[in-house]
Amino acid sequence: MTDIEIIQICTEEVEQKNWGVTEQFLDIHSLVYEAGKLKIERIDRDNPDGTLIAYIPVRDERFYLAIYVKANPDPEIVGVGTEPYQSVYFRATSKTLDFDQLSCLTKLKPTSGWSKGEMRKIGKGEYDFTSLEFLPNPEPDEFEDKLNNLLDFLEQDEEGIKKLVEMSDGYIQVAMIFHNGNTMLGGPHISTNAIKRMNALNLEIDFDLYANGKYFK
Questions:
Q1: DSSP string covering 72-139
Q2: What would the pLDDT profile of 96-135 be if each residue is shown by its tens digit?
Q3: Taking phi first (over 0 means left), then psi (-120 to 50 degrees means alpha), and beta for anything else, what does residue 208 get?
Q4: What kind of fold does domain 3-83 have according to CATH?
Q5: Is 116:128 a contact under the CB 8 Å cutoff?
Q6: I need a labelling partner for 101 at 20 to 30 A (CA). Which of 13, 70, 170, 205 fits?
Q7: Torsions phi, psi of 36, nearest 5?
Q8: How far apart are CA 214 and CA 60, in angstroms?
């Protein structure tokens, strides 16, 4: 299926509200449109069973309306729900080393960061610690895929990541923002394989979980 076909299927569902979940959700939230057309943040084609996931941004929120589409044998929607905003990244912080000193410990290129003493980008005053972050998978995706993609990235320089862990406070940070529609948020699953891979890099993982949005009526 082409992106245009998927967008058309999703647009029809949003307009016709054939699924009860769609009707319930649009009764309390609005979706994002650009130039009069429904915005699709990402179409995920990576699921082993062939199910496509269209991530539709919600106005003034960070989570997504998700429409699940089976392409074969005939295109059809097989589910509608919400998917949380998820950020999964490696972070190293230090009170003694600056950004360049941390960066030199690995061959990997940081996504963002700052040095102790720099002015804060948000708020007032200076940072009282140095931070280095690697975020290889910023687009909407499922937690398991984001974690595996991050580990794939970090494993390109295992020794460098181990040095960051040893010489600074290095760990995997996860931020998740769910739709608090019925207070049943669900949560992340970490496979035994991912646990083994994190252990090989001496990595801990930290979760910040949030719930936003309006309750279903």
A1: SSS-EEEEEEEE-EEEEEEEEEESSS-HHHHHTT-SSPPSEEE-TTSBPSSSSSB-SSEEEEE-S--S
A2: 999 999 999 999 999 999 999 999 988 889 999 999 999 9
A3: beta
A4: Nuclear Transport Factor 2; Chain: A, (3.10.450)
A5: yes
A6: 205
A7: 80, 5
A8: 11
